[in-house]
Amino acid sequence: MAAARFPACLVLQPRARSLRAFSTSVSPATRSPRPSPSTTERTSRYGRPLRRKALPPRTEKMAVDQDWPSVYPVAAPFKPSAVPLPVRMGYPVKRGVPMAKEGNLELLKIPNFLHLTPVAIKKHCEALKDFCTEWPAALDSDEKCRKHFPIEIDTAGYVSAGPSIRNPKARVVTLRVKLSSLNLDDHAKKKLIKLVGDRYCKSTDVLTIKTDRCPLKRQNYDYAMYLLTVLYHESWKTEEWEKKKTEADMEEYVWKDSSSEKNILETLLQIKAAEKDLELSKEELLGTEEVEEYRKSVVSLKNEGDNENTLSQYKESVKRLLNLT
Amino acid sequence: MAAVHSARWLRISRGLCLPLMGRRAGVCGRAPSSRFYSGSAAVPEVEGAGATGTEEVVIPKKKTWDKVAVLQALASTVHRDATAAPYAFQDDPYLIPTSSMESHSFLLAKKSGENAAKFIINSYPKYFQKDIAEPHIPCFMPEYFEPQIEDISEAALQERIKLRKVKASVDMFDQLLQAGTTVSLETTNSLLDLLCYYGNQEPSTNYNFQQREQAEELEEATEGSNEKPKKKAGHQLGVTWRAKNNAERIFALMPEKNAHSYCTMIRGMVKHRAPTQALNLYTELLNNRLRADVHTFNSLIEATAFVANEKSEEKWNNILDLLKQMVAQNVKPNLQTFNTILKCLRRFHAIGKLPALQTLREMKAIGIEPSLATYHYIIQLFYQHENPSKGSSLIIYDIMNELMGKKFSPKDPDDDMFFQSAMRVCSSLRDLELAYQVHDLLNTGDNRKFIGPDHRRYFYYSKFFGLLCLMEQIDVTLKWYKDLIPSVFFPHSQTLIDLLQALDVANRLELIPQIWKDSKEYGHTFRRDLKEEILTLMARDRHPPEVAFADCAADIKSTYESQDARQTAPSWLASSLNHIAVLFLRAGRTQEAWKMLGLFRKHNKIPGNELLNEFMDSAKASGSPAQAIEIVKLAGAFSLPICESLTQRLMADFTLSQEQKEALGDLTALTSDSDSDSSSDSDNDVGESK
Lengths: 325, 690
Fold this sequence. Notes:
Structural class of chain A: alpha+beta
Helix content of chain B: 55-70%
Strand content of chain B: under 5%
Shape of chain A: elongated
CATH class of the largest domain in chain A: Alpha Beta
CATH topology of the largest domain in chain A: Double Stranded RNA Binding Domain
Number of helices of chain B: 32
Mean pLDDT of chain B: 77
Low-confidence stretches of chain B: 1-53, 207-236, 674-680, 686-690
Radius of gyration of chain A: 43 Å
Oligomer: heterodimer
């Protein structure tokens, strides 16, 4: 044992004779400590304990019917030695193939969902069923839900990896309610719509209140409910100055007392006067069928805008009114 | 199982909700709803002016759970991955440890990195003040180890005691006394506590795990190692209580002493191995008509067992006396009392058996639930010696029947020795059913925690696996093999040899190359006995060439050679050379087999007779007389008695040319004895005369 310490700098072919001959001429000061067998398992053949050799990847030992969610129970980076799939990723060089999975940075960079296979998700759902309560049996359709619970609240929670669990985006609260489920009469509804402005969507009849001015979600929720309550009560009240509502403030066209009514009455009266037919008074004129029809067509034209239907209706009613057909 | 879990985690919230009154759905401020994964939750709500439907909408009561309930529920869906290394290691083929020493050193490296980081943070706290963790995590912030109060006062003394600075607090105490201020009884008591706990030395900054591990390699894990950890109780090894040390001095200086002071001193003395002094102090305590508390009694019981030069019966009587005094002083015993009694009974060997059972009955009568340590002591007591020929008791079966399905929580520092001793008993009794019972107990609930540190785990599993190899069917054994090795423990060569013998018994020798490949991975490349065993089993009978025995043999040969290249001490054995050559021949790899012959000569080992015959056969099969002559030359070189028969066979089976015959003649002339000498001489004469 004494003679055979060859120095670490010598790495040659392991021909025992030459090595032995060389080592005897080397001074004993350069001998390296003899590695014990248990630490040299994975060293190379060349004497000193060189770099460890890697084990074969453990995909070789995996059974085909193993429990995959146990291998990847949580979100973890892609481990090529643990994923038994021959995945390739990367832009191939000319006449080459995409790179293999070992040491592939592209596979590491992207988020992987190996921990959320359908089997795993099914198991998770089974386990989480215990935390859920039964859905009420009476609420079996969307309409019933809307009927019993007209107000809908949207909140979002955020989870991220880091030392802090707070996220300022989590304080936003959105309240949605259909105005048809609120008890509003015509004036109240119009006043409410004027009060909220942009927050009301006419096509779906939904009022949306989004609050984020308070620092906490609970506070924002309280504030949203408070706003809804205040709007409701305020819209039922009628103030003094509301009586001064002019035609420019009207939301929709009202034919009564409008210039169109005046015009048509004047025109008809003039026509009647020209025909020397003064028996009909204003009210009677207004009550006639043609005028009614004219009124309807003008209202629809003004309220709904110009389209084929309304324009042709207007044309018919004018023709009938002026006895042009 | 799901139902059980839910019962544990969920509490149905009381008193909440019902339909359609102005109820607020608790979307805000309740822990559950804020624990959703990112996404929106639409919670329906009823407006105050609420719609009342014709049918009643019954909203169920909301469930509440604690913070980790959801995680625990999800964790119950996954199991252990049998191919993975323990989670503490990096999951990379290069970085997974391959032996128990490596795994230990990796864990130590990781821990030392953490310690280094903590050290830096605590040395320079002003650079680590920024706290972005929300909610606040106190253990990430730097700790202050230096006392802040500088003046000489009782508050300063209390601070130093709190910071565990033994020497500084003793100095402060002395300074206070010199300055004439009286130190209150409480502070003096806490100072005594500090001194007695640490045995008048500074608390060591090394961590426990660096000191304890001497029985790492499983080869040394015998009964002896069961006792070694006991001697290392307490973190200072060999801290003994010196007479007239600081604690005693301060104790003597105290103007008034209450029961607490005496108790602390007694416990400190016992902990640091001064039992006689402890007992003396106890008599002094009684003289002062004070009462001791239950912990002190526990220490005293231990002290009586440690007193030297007394016989076991006397010690037991002393212990009984102490117990009577305990009753007289109205001190209720606790679990530690009984465990200490059992621990002491262990030292009394045979006479301790009956009192141990009595103790156990007493414990149950009082209503104290025994912990795993209790059962461990009982097992140690009843199964102290390994030889079952003495008629071992059946108490292990009673114990296991009682423990089935129970979940334990840590109550005694020696709780983690139970499984090791139980498995040892199972192994010595050769009872596989019992071993399965023990293993089931280990897997109930959280009992895995009680498997103990690494060396105990290895001991447990190697005994378990050894028993499996011995007693269980080979398929089941192989399943356990795949499951346990190497993810749970690293086998040592004896375990693998047991496995190989089990394979032999079950006639499944074709799995040997697989086992060899696996064992190379966890560090058995150079274990000679394992390789010998493998080669012997492979070479013993003829096998069909589909089993890759020759490849395996070539692999083993290369390991021998690489080992050779590193040291001149020859590691070859004659038998291994024999086996390898035979395997090559049987597989038809004659080229390599012939190279083996060269190795025989090189290492000066003698080939076996059957081997030479087989070589002869193969030479005949290949029809090359030169090879046959080689063999005969080799036999002659070693002066083997078989040389004669080989020569005859050579002459009979082969047609030799003239030079060959002459060369053969020379050879036989040189090496054979007188008879063959004369015959060859006569041959030569005949040849010459022609």
